[in-house]
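DM between two lab members

TW: hey, do you still have the ATP-dependent (S)-NAD(P)H-hydrate dehydratase entry open?
JB: yeah, one sec
JB: this one, 354 aa:
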Amino acid sequence: MTTDSKVPVMSAATRSILAKVQRMVPPMLDKFHKGQLGRVAVIGGSEDYTGAPYFSAMASARLGCDMSHVICTPGAAAVIKTYSPNLMVHPLMRQSSSEKSSEQQQQKGSDSDAEHVAARIVEEMLPRLHVLVVGPGLGRDPLMQATVARVVRAAREREMPLVLDADALQLVQQDPGLVRGYAGAVLTPNVVEFKRLWESLGLDDPGDGAGETGKVEALAKALGGVTIIQKGGSDFISNGKTTLTDDLTGGKKRSGGQGDTLTGSVATFLAWRKAYMDRLWDVGDEPLSADEMMGLAAFGGSAVTRECSRLAFLKKGRSLQASDLTDEVHGAFMALFGEVDGEEAGGRESDSKL
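TW: and the structure you got?
JB:
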């Protein structure tokens, strides 16, 4: 397979899975109103990292969620707001006060108080959201991490789908119970993060007999059925029981920030999963199951990201940057799915590229 084709190249198996993913994509109907087709929030963004949450939230918006939020620190919010007026940016997170004067600490309270206040405010937003992305640009500040852990627990209690990446995965390393057994969680580790998760759980090498998907299956099982996207030459997606392989060809440039397009894309498919389960349109006589759609949402996000990378690399070559993937989200969607329209589009293959 090559990257110089004008159309995506894929195996028959990938084509078949994408046909199922397409059934989750809402048709564009006049009866829908704002917010029904996805309200996604990205928690991340600190003083040092403002690009990652933007790329994630913007990928979610460009793919088609109705409302895209970023929940970050005040310093990050001031910057992210200049990137795009289309995102709703909330300066609710706080970083540790270790460098503040004692007078400032007395005025603003301890870090423990700040964690409680910030987490409570974010938790109050949860009923207005469908999906939470945690980690892009989060950093490793103790207060930020503690606040996020509380929010993740609250989201889990609400059975809200979660996408965890980057420094949120460090929380899972430290406390696997944060997500263990939660089928509504999707983890998107890179090679290094996957290795750290593996080692933190003390897992043994499954051996060559387990095949190339053996490790992702073992890790997903060890975490009690979360969905994991193991990124690589092909993306392996597994919850420990069902494993999907995305072999779409991506671009050859591995610039930082491409994983943020993945988290935002997966989040939008998860939001569409809710719209599908709410039967906002005719989904056909044999609807997809909620569990199956977790894997399909992860696969859809993976496919869109890999196609974004391919299209961007065709134009930019070795100069490719994460923002180039953002510009290709709609084109990637159209290349993979085409127009999805009509009341019954969710229950059939419609007029697509598949």
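TW: got it. The longest strand covers residues 39-43. The chain is about 45% helix and 10% strand.
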